[in-house]
Design goal:
Helix content: over 70%
Keywords: Cell membrane, Membrane, Transmembrane, Transmembrane helix, Transport
Structural class: mainly alpha
Strand content: under 5%
Number of strands: 0
Number of domains: 2
Transmembrane segments: 12-37, 43-64, 171-194, 206-229, 236-258, 264-286
Largest sheet: none
Order of helices and strands: HHHHHHHHHHH
Membrane topology: Multi-pass membrane protein
Shape: globular
Oligomer: single chain
GO molecular function: antiporter activity; xenobiotic transmembrane transporter activity
Main location: membrane
Amino acid sequence: MYAAALRASGDTVAALWILAASIFSNLLLDLLFVAYFHDGIAGAAKATALTLFFAAFLCIAYLFHSHRKFLFQKKDCILRLSMIYTTLKCSLITFLHQASLYIGKALVQGTVNTGGTELISAYTAGTRIEGFANSFGDSTSAATSVLISQNYGAGNRQRVKQTFLHSLKSTLTLGILCGLLLSVTAPLSIRLMIGTSQAIAFSRAVHYLRFIAWFYPLCFIGGTFTGHFNGISKMIFTLCGTLLQIVLRVILSASFFPGMQLNAVALATGLGWFLAVSFWSICYLMRHQR
């Protein structure tokens, strides 16, 4: 919450440094609990929990020093029904958006699980690499949302449009570059994840990454649209687009998996992104034709 407050105020550098410090501490604590104390999965959980406390402490300490007005105080204990309504409306839609996304991923994972251990291994390794690549698009989407919300709140509609168009160009370029990088480095990245001893899993994971990399521009463009709609408090468009792409991804993955296996998941994911971007494009154009 406090990191979001920092980003919303424009102090993104501090939020970045706090994130970097927490990641570094998590790595050190993982080495301590897992490698040194041999505490296994429980050690990884302890490291994550302690890191969360550390990150929260850093946020509060920095806010106390530089942005004390963001800290919760007694004078903030005021019941405002309009603010409660706005908060519940926004948070409920965001909850439904995130929940539908992860439920869909779980259903796709269930389909992959029917293919045996090699495919499970390949899909797990591939999606972990994908998560790293997608983090660039997620970061751009978050930055777009912050900039658009600031200008939208200030009533500067021209800056809102300019921010969206600049972000669209940037994410398209970034999506193409990340897709190319993902495709070229697929053998190396999968080797780091599962090695080469599992020949079938290795081969399937590489093919999966190279197939889905073709659709990455759509994924990154979608991030710009979600950042835009979230920034102008129209999260319902974000939710509807996500539901469309998740439902299509689940249906197509289950339908094509027996014949195409992991390529079915990659194709279903790409077509889902295409459907979502098409829907968001129509919503954006309709709003700006009024």
